[in-house]
């Protein structure tokens, strides 16, 4: 198949070129897929998109008119794609449901430990010759209560790591993971989880039902000084509400690897640019906030798995007209 890849970086080109061989004809493009750039897909049988590409109904209509027959997501989430409209127009969709849950789970716990022990701040101090420990006090994770919202593959692995640290782990999931339950994870209602935890970590997909799951009502139920970690999807958190909770002390620690308005920021080098997003800039002023640029997935293992699964999805659709990794349409 002729495949136009949008939002590509050097590591995408390397991993996909190595995994592809001569099977498909790959064309790598730097721009995001949007209504303004969709014409770049002309002459392609398929497009390959990432988390911040915009594949709404209008873009899908244009893709259909250009003769595109398949949309390959090189990620697990599909909230940026109108799957129902693609199905209606006869365009197949495939995703990578699990590329390396260990990568994201390990990174999640790394954020917890870094934020708690303020390793990022200590590193910068030492580089400036400041060896003071003032303001760097942390707490033992052993014996703390950690709440996981979502216990799919990533949430389950995160639970195992935290149990190994001696944490009490509780969770909320509409479909409780019995493997987690067998390990001692207690499944509780969401309202109870909000009020019981020292640390809350998000591991659920973004859906219309849980948009801004963490907002004023949820924050009001949490303990003062709670730590919140998000390595899932940015719009699970109402950023304005969390900023107010940081100011009041209700949120004592916040680590984000995703951000609800990250589309124009993440994956780009903006070091010589003035960031116009005032909400994001406000977050950066808090000493108890740690933000990284959507890199929890970013290991060699994950990149290899993403390339292999995406290319297999393309091959399967080309040969059978179906894709086993098609996301559900709502």
Topology of helices and strands:
Blueprint: E1 2-5, H1 10-20, E2 25-28, E3 46-49, H2 57-65, E4 70-73, H3 83-88, E5 92-94, H4 101-117, H5 119-127, E6 145-149, H6 153-164, E7 168-172, H7 178-183, E8 186-187, H8 190-196, E9 199-202, H9 216-220, E10 226-230, H10 239-248, E11 251-256, H11 278-283, E12 289-291, H12 300-320
Parallel strand pairs: 1-2, 1-3, 3-4, 4-5, 6-7, 6-9, 7-8, 9-10, 10-11, 11-12
Summarize the structure.
This protein has 330 residues and is α/β, with parallel strands linked by helices.
CATH superfamily of the largest domain: NAD(P)-binding Rossmann-like Domain
Quote the average pLDDT: 96
Number of strands: 12
Q: Which class of secondary structure composition applies to the elements? A: alpha/beta
Rounded to the nearest angstrom, the radius of gyration is 21 Å
Number of domain units: 2
N-end to C-end Cα span: 28 Å
CATH class of the largest domain: Alpha Beta
**Uncertain segments of ≥5 residues (pLDDT<50)?**
none
Please provide the ordered H/E string of secondary-structure elements.
Answer: EHEEHEHEHHEHEHEHEHEHEHEH
Shape: globular
CATH topology annotation of the largest domain: Rossmann fold
Q: What is the tally of helical segments?
A: 12
How are the strands ordered across the major sheet? 8-7-6-9-10-11-12
């Amino acid at each position: 198949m002729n495949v136009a890849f949008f939002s590509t970086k050097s590591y995408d080109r390397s991993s996909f070129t190595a995994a592809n061989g001569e099977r498909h004809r790959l064309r790598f493009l730097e721009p995001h897929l949007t209504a303004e750039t969709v014409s770049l897909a002309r002459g392609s049988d398929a497009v390959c998109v990432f988390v911040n590409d915009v594949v709404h109904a209008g873009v899908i209509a244009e893709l259909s008119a250009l003769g595109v027959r398949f949309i390959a997501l090189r990620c697990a989430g599909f909230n940026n794609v109108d799957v129902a409209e693609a199905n209606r127009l006869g365009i197949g969709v495939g995703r990578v449901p699990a590329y390396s849950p260990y990568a994201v789970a390990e990174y999640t716990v790394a954020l917890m430990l870094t934020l708690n022990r303020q390793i990022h701040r200590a590193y910068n101090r030492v580089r400036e010759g400041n060896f003071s420990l003032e303001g760097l006090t942390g707490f033992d994770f052993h014996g703390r209560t950690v709440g996981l919202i979502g216990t799919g593959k990533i949430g389950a692995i995160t639970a195992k790591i935290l149990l190994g640290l001696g944490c009490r782990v509780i969770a909320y999931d509409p479909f409780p993971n019995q493997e987690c339950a067998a390990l001692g994870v207690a499944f509780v209602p969401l309202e109870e989880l909000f009020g019981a935890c020292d640390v809350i970590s998000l591991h659920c997909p973004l859906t219309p039902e849980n948009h801004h799951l963490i907002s004023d009502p949820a924050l009001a139920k949490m303990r003062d000084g709670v730590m919140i970690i998000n390595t899932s999807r940015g719009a699970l958190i109402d950023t304005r509400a969390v900023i107010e909770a940081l100011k009041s002390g209700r949120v004592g620690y916040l680590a984000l690897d995703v951000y609800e308005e990250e589309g124009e920021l993440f994956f780009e080098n903006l070091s010589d640019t003035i960031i116009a997003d005032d909400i994001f800039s406000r977050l950066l002023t808090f000493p108890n906030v740690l933000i990284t640029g959507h890199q929890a997935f970013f290991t060699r293992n994950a990149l290899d798995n993403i390339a292999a699964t995406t290319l297999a999805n393309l091959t399967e659709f080309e040969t059978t007209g179906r894709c086993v990794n098609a996301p559900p349409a709502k």
